[in-house]
Amino acid sequence: MAEKMALAKAINESLRRALESDPKVLIMGEDVGKLGGVFRVTDGLQKDFGESRVIDTPLAESGIVGTAIGLALRGYRPVVEIQFDGFVFPAYDQIVTQLAKMHARSLGKVKLPVVVRIPYGGGIGAVEHHSESPEALFAHVAGLKVVSPGNASDAYWMMQQAIQSDDPVIFFEPKRRYWDKAEVNTEAIPGPLHKAQVVREGTDLTLVAYGPMVKLCLEAAAAAAEEGKSLEVLDLRSISPLDFDSIQTSVQRTRRLVVVHEAPVFLGSGAEIAARITERCFYHLEAPVLRVGGYHAPYPPARLEEEYLPGLDRVLDAVDRALAY
Predict the structure, then answer these.
(1) 96 DSSP 8-state letter
(2) Interval 279-291: pLDDT, tens
(3) 177, 181, 219, 126: CA torsion to nearest 10
């Protein structure tokens, strides 16, 4: 049955289903229990499943992830929440040197089915350390899967698939989209976790995005259509691994590519996409691959964030530049 729900609610329902389906699933994090999380994503779960399944932890991100690793070694499937994106760095060592490496270190004998939930990105007028986009740092680390849904339906199903994965998954949740609603069919058969999806077809240029920027790219495509330009929008959904085949298929048809992400352009995910698609599609491209993203600077105070974040004008400017070649 399909139901319209907000992205945050979809994650809540997905976590609820996982807790009901598997007694080894645990939820851990700062304020995830009694409070239900600062964004209320885990609201009601501790009340219904108890304090031994939905666990309020101390303010210690390294300890949260380290504990989750130990639990996973004992057969549990922990889902841990990092309260805000900028708070993940105290746990970075545990994630990249332990969580990501254990499978290889044990020659495949040890699996670590841990999901690390990270609300990320700006657009909510938050203070310092609450609006970061660190996804490229984790995508660079072999052994980690890195995903980000752009709508409520994907949020529901991708969380299910992440929890069921025997590999660690970093699950970036676009916090500015928590309240965006979409139809969610909880009885559907989902596609592969790391498969990109065409969310709008077009013929003149491909816009590639993930997470919070998918909606912006759809708005850009709608605006461009009023001027007679046909833009295809591809939602990557997965940042590591990247579905280069789907990008290549789209670009071979449209012959132009603009990659949009909220994170800084410098050494961001768009750089890898631009390099790989240039290699794969060199004789198809009619313009260089262009990138739109944040600046290579610390995230600014809330009053200035709209100047920092990619907006409609910056995306459409890149589209115009690509079409002008």
Answers:
(1) I
(2) 999 999 999 999 9
(3) -20
Token couple for 31: 């304020």
The residue written with tokens 């495509």 in the block is: 221
Provide the CB-side half-sphere exposure for 265 (13 A, CA): 15
Identify which of 229, 234, 265, 230 has the alpha carbon closest to the alpha carbon of residue 247.
Answer: 234
pLDDT at 106: 95
Phi, psi of 317 (to 5 degrees): -65, -45
Going edge to edge, which strands form the sheet with 205-209?
A: 197-200, 231-235, 205-209, 257-264, 290-294
Please give the model's pTM, rounded to 2 decimal places: 0.97
- The conformation of residue 303, written as its DSSP 8-state character, comes to G
**130, 140, 194, 296: the active-site residue:** 130
Cβ atoms of 78 and 57 closer than 8 Å: no
CA dihedral 101, 102, 104, 108 (to 10 degrees): -150
> What amino acid occupies position 121?
G
Taking the C-alpha atoms of residue 161 and residue 159, their distance in angstroms, rounded to an integer, is 5
Q: Which two tokens stand for residue 322?
A: 């690509």
Of 213, 181, 234, 219, the residue nearest 294 (C-alpha): 213
Helix (H, G, I), strand (E, B) or coil at 27: strand
Query: Does residue 194 have an active-site annotation?
Result: no
Paired strand residues for 242:
none
Q: In angstroms, rounded to a whole number, what is the distance separating the alpha carbons of residues 20 and 15?
A: 9
The confidence score (pLDDT) of residue 4 equals 96
Per DSSP (E only), the strands in 50-101 are 54-56, 77-81
Please give the distance of CA 301 from its chain centroid, rounded to a whole number: 23
Q: What DSSP element (H or E) covers 40?
A: none
**Is-contact 152 181, C-beta < 8 A?**
yes
Residue 152 is inside which H or E element, if any? helix 152-164
Using an 8 Å Cβ cutoff, are 233 and 198 in contact? yes
Residue found under tokens 């910056």? 314
